[in-house]
Amino acid sequence: MDTYKFFFMTGGNCLIRENLESVRKRVAASAERVGRTDPITLVAVTKNHPVEELMEAVAAGVTDVGENRVREALSKQESFPDNHVIWHLIGHLQTNKVKQAVAHFDLIHSVDSVHLLEVINKESGKIGKVQDILLQVNVAREESKTGMAVEVFPEICRRAAELEYVRVRGLMCMAPNFENSEDARPIFRIADALYEDMKDKFPNGQVRCLSMGMTHDFEIAIEEGANIVRVGTAIFGPRNY
Transmembrane segments in this chain: where (predicted)? Predict the structure, then answer.
């Protein structure tokens, strides 16, 4: 019996299952505090965690998996031949990795330039795929973070709407790692306003993903409108670098 089937039969690691249950309860409580009843997608971020831990999470009900690096994701995807999960690329995407990314990811969160948009469109067209993407905006203007400036966001939306093999599904935002997570609230509010504004720039119903919030601030992000949260440490524990 292969490892993948083993984890589905045994239920995997109890600690990861318990952590997931805790995170799910926190997600639900955050939504309830602001009267939300719409679905919120929990993306389990497995960067620097072994594939065995990913299997444990999937055995515990995880359906969406986030990876920061294309190469690491490809090695883990080999253990999921039946495509039981939805794969999210949440890390910075270099143009020389686009060909692999469009072939192996369902949603790319980190599109931050016209040039990257056009390369994704070109490589997706080669395989006849319309690639779902999010536009990443550096709302906090952190020099250490990727993402486009707020000022160029309208221009990139216009260009994205013209491309045949790219489908913009929404926006991605990262807040600084504030000591007090409440300090992230203004950042998320700006991102939510941009998200609402961009809906008119694309076909009705196409834009419906607002990806923001990680382990340290996902509850605030949900209260401010996020419907995708990217959580790693709260599920898997500290990363082993």
Answer: none
